[in-house]
Amino acid sequence: MTPAILWLTGWGMPDSCWQEVRQQIPCALHLAPDYSRVSRPEQFCEVVEQTARSIDGNELIVVGWSMGGLLALRLAASRPVAGLVLIGTTMRFVRHPAERNKGWGAVVLQRMKRLLPTERERVMAQFAEQMLSAKEREQNRLEMEKAGEQWSEQALLAGLDYLASEDCRHVAASLSCPAIVISGTDDLICPLAAGEELANTLPDADFVPLKDCGHMPHVFYPDVVGTAVTRMVKQIARKYSQASFQ
To answer: Which UniProt keywords apply (predicted)?
Structure first.
């Protein structure tokens, strides 16, 4: 069995951010959705579904980061998924003040949406800066100039609307596939408490916290993330082999 892995990146981020992790799994069929024509929030799910349907006869593993993690949860609720690896993911991005340790207030996204058409570079640079822990700022490996360049303005705005409206809290508890949830202890975008909440809600999930890590475990700790994805691939392969002999 050749495993198929669907890679779902975060808001405004380039698909190339997965490069160091993907190269650790050369035997897999790697796929990623194209968001270039997205102009409405619901289209993100449609594009992801369309990409998943292109896989024929392969067990599908979905790796989702941040907004991509929300899309991964939504996909797993609509079609069979063999396994999930969720990085810096929350079930609900926008939170009320009482749950501010698990997400952002709606006003932050509203401000980003208001400024984006006229101050795009500033918005993207500030967002990228927030993804870093204090330790990571000293060894920044994110190519800031690539943040958002593959996304049209319409896609970026639609992504903010998607983050503002999506709520997968009722979805996660219904998923039966195995999952690995990876969160940075210093993540300011999707806080550690949100990752813990997600791992505790999913019926079959392992939680991997990373000390001193911000919102980009796959960029600063690619070996840890690569090991998690490889472990999921092997787990699904064993299950597939056992089923073949039954």
So the answer is: Hydrolase
pLDDT tens profile 173-224: 999 999 999 999 999 999 999 999 999 999 999 999 999 999 999 999 999 9
Rounded CA-CA distance 200/181 in Å is: 10
Residue type, 98: A
Confidence grade of residue 148 (pLDDT, cut at 50, 70, 90): low
List, as one string, the DSSP characters of 91-106: S-SB--GGGGGGSB-H
Eight-class DSSP state of 90: -
Of 110, 143, 115, the closest CA to residue 216 belongs to 143
**Considering the entire predicted model, what is its pTM?**
0.94
CA 194 – CA 179 distance, rounded (Å): 15
CATH architecture of 4-244: 3-Layer(aba) Sandwich (3.40)
**Residue 205 in contact with residue 178, Cβ under 8 Å?**
yes
End-to-end CA distance of the chain: 16
Q: What is the CA radius of gyration of the chain?
A: 17
